[in-house]
Design goal:
single chain, six-stranded antiparallel β-sheet, 18% strand, alpha+beta, Beta-Lactamase, disordered N terminus, Arc Repressor Mutant, subunit A
């Protein structure tokens, strides 16, 4: 009897794990996937996927995307997400604290709002007499800040083109305002996932930044502001630590770092 109960419990866990795999396979797929495409992504037989998808459709966790049997994430997931009321800033704060302790610098978290990068959380360095600190709620332009460039690099091409056609303010002699220069910055970010501000927004302040998506596909940026007089000494080490923090966050969110 005990063995039967144990086997039943194991099978139940396996079904839940497989259903979770099917749901995750549809992240970032607004047009949905066919049963064969889902089966290929999750490594399960098409017949197994068909049974799981049928159950998830019944619960409105999946819905039909097209008349030809493609499915996509359903409205029940949105309701569940809203009920969770997750504060992403607080969720990521332990990672920011670990990074700040490691590099002994301030760490900022920001989100893209319109054409600005807005700080939503911060961990200030504890042992630095001279540090670069802004405040939660502060908004910064995209073209001349590390967090802004990291967010800008994730924009869809039409949105980016529209932004680059606007008049971009020159804050310091180092501010890049020409389109070719900014496209080069974006291409550099796409290669190494690090954006750099070399006194482009504020004289005396540099920064490095990176970006990633939260579970709701909102793009976030982690950045580290550093006084210019010691930036060149620590840029490489801080950038590497920032990337490792980014990867740890992405893994914790159930995804694979790109």
């Amino acid at each position: 009897m005990a063995s039967t109960t144990k086997n039943t419990g194991t099978r139940g866990i396996q079904v839940i794990a497989r259903a979770a795999k099917v749901l995750r396979s549809l992240e970032g797929e607004p047009d949905g996937l066919s049963l064969r495409e889902i089966a290929d992504k999750v490594g399960l037989a098409r017949s197994t996927v068909q049974r799981i998808v049928g159950a998830l459709v019944d619960e409105q966790l999946l819905i039909a995307a097209t008349p030809n049997a493609r499915v996509k994430l359903g409205p029940s997931l949105i309701r569940l997400a809203a009920s969770a009321n997750i504060d992403v800033g607080e969720l990521l704060k332990p990672y920011m604290q670990d990074l700040s302790r490691l590099i002994e610098e301030t760490v900022d978290l920001s989100v893209l709002k319109g054409k600005r990068a807005v700080f939503i959380n911060q961990v200030a360095a504890r042992n630095r007499r001279l540090q670069a600190v802004s405040h939660i709620g502060d908004a910064f332009p995209l073209h001349c800040t590390a967090n802004g460039k990291a967010l800008m690099a994730t924009m869809a091409e039409p949105e980016l083109d529209k932004y680059l056609k606007t008049k971009l303010e020159k804050f310091t002699p180092n501010t890049i305002t020409d389109v070719i220069g900014l496209i080069t910055e974006i291409e550099d970010f796409q290669q190494n996932l690090i954006a750099v501000d070399r006194e482009e927004h504020t004289e005396g302040i540099c920064a490095v930044g990176t970006s990633f998506k939260d579970p709701f596909s909102q793009v976030l940026a982690l950045s580290v502001p550093i006084p210019a007089h010691r930036f060149s000494q620590v840029e490489s080490v801080v950038s590497q630590a920032l990337l490792e923090c980014r990867n740890a966050i992405i893994l914790a969110l159930g995804k694979q770092p790109s």
